[in-house]
């Protein structure tokens, strides 16, 4: 067997293996999906909640994630940045929102590092009962200051490459090394 034929057959075997591996990993490479929202899509709540949540099948990344809480006039009531804990993305909502229909438009970064987006809607039957800076702390000299804000714990998914891809790369590298060793042995046997 000549070196040219061996290289051609090795290349064909690698391509067939890649097709097999990537073809069967289609489900593993799918983007994350939303499992639920809070408030639920189409629901009616008493007043605008302090936060909205989007639950997914996997943990999304924090970087690049954005959630808007829009009233009927298009005013965004979102406050701060998106917080992620486990498989739930949480967006805090400013106090003082009016009654009415709200649309939550979201864009999150899936655990496979691809952006996914969508929206859901709900209706608040009454204006928000909380006011901005509702809790107030009176400091020395009778000055009024806002209470210290607690920062929600944010978890970022550092695992942006799915393990299926990493495993495929390792397997393919092993196959290439094995083919090179086999080719060298055959060439030395022909000499």
Any overview of this molecule?
This protein has 191 residues and is of the alpha+beta class. 26% of the residues lie in helices and 35% in strands. The strands form 3 sheets. A 4-stranded antiparallel sheet has the order 1-3-6-5, with no helix packed on it. Helix 1 packs antiparallel against helix 2. The longest helix is centred in the last third of the chain and has 28 residues, at 163-190.
Task: Identify the notable features of this structure and list them briefly.
four-stranded mixed beta sheet; alpha+beta; 191 residues
Gist of the model:
This protein is of the alpha+beta class and 191 residues long.
Percent in strands: 25-35%
Give the biggest beta sheet.
Answer: 4 strands, antiparallel
H/E topology pattern? HEEEEEEEEEEH
Low-confidence stretches: 24-28, 132-161
Mind telling me the C-alpha Rg?
27 Å
CA-based shape: rod-shaped
User: Total strand count, please?
Assistant: 10
- Average of pLDDT: 77
SS-based class: alpha+beta
Q: Quote the distance from N terminus to C terminus.
A: 12 Å
Total helical elements: 2
Helical coverage, percent range: 25-40%
Strand order of the largest sheet: 1-3-6-5
Write the layout of secondary structure elements.
Layout: H1 3-24, E1 34-38, E2 43-47, E3 51-56, E4 61-70, E5 78-85, E6 88-93, E7 100-109, E8 115-126, E9 137-138, E10 144-145, H2 163-190
Parallel strand pairs: 2-8
Antiparallel strand pairs: 1-3, 3-6, 4-7, 5-6, 7-8, 9-10
Helix pairs in contact: 1-2
